[in-house]
Design a protein that fits this description.
By secondary structure, the protein is mostly helical. The protein contains 7 helices and no strands. The protein has helices at 13-21, 23-47, 55-78, 91-98, 104-132, 136-160, 166-186. Helix 5 (104-132) crosses helix 7.
Length: 194
Amino acid sequence: MKLNLDVGIPSKQEWIEAVMNDFPSFLQDHADCERKASAMAMSMVAKYPDRVEIIPELIETGVEELEHFQMVYKIMAERGIQLAHQIKEDKYVKQLIKLCHSGREERFMDRMLIASVVETRGAERFKMVADAQTDEEMAKFYKMLWVSEAKHGHIYVKMALNYFSEEQVFPRLEWWVEREAEILDGLEIRSALH
């Protein structure tokens, strides 16, 4: 059983060109995204303490995302790049969250599936960054992140399947993949993960 879908549309070539033309800004945004991904996993633990079946995986995911933040920060520090003074609003995630159902159960499933879609997009984009690198160490680093993000995309679907049937999860996941593609297509291209 496939636990996630592929991205609805591929990222544009213009996106990777923007990233490679301003890699310091991409690193700053990437660091922010890793912090937010860790915080999101941990907020799910706080909001749904009764979901004991998935708490260990949420904690593990939160810790892993924080380790990724630490790794990105180390690269930034080595290059003399500071963290951004404030985390910018993520229009991409904000637009996805706006589409969530409002009922407790439905919203819980939607949050899991949004996380899956966002992680899957991250995997696709980290692969593009890895492939575009001329620095062998950076290529290796982004390849590792690509694999990790793809795994997280699967984990969130697997967690949702603890509480909802395949007949509920997979059509909704497909719907989210379509919405994510529309949102991404409407965003300005910049040197940022989303």
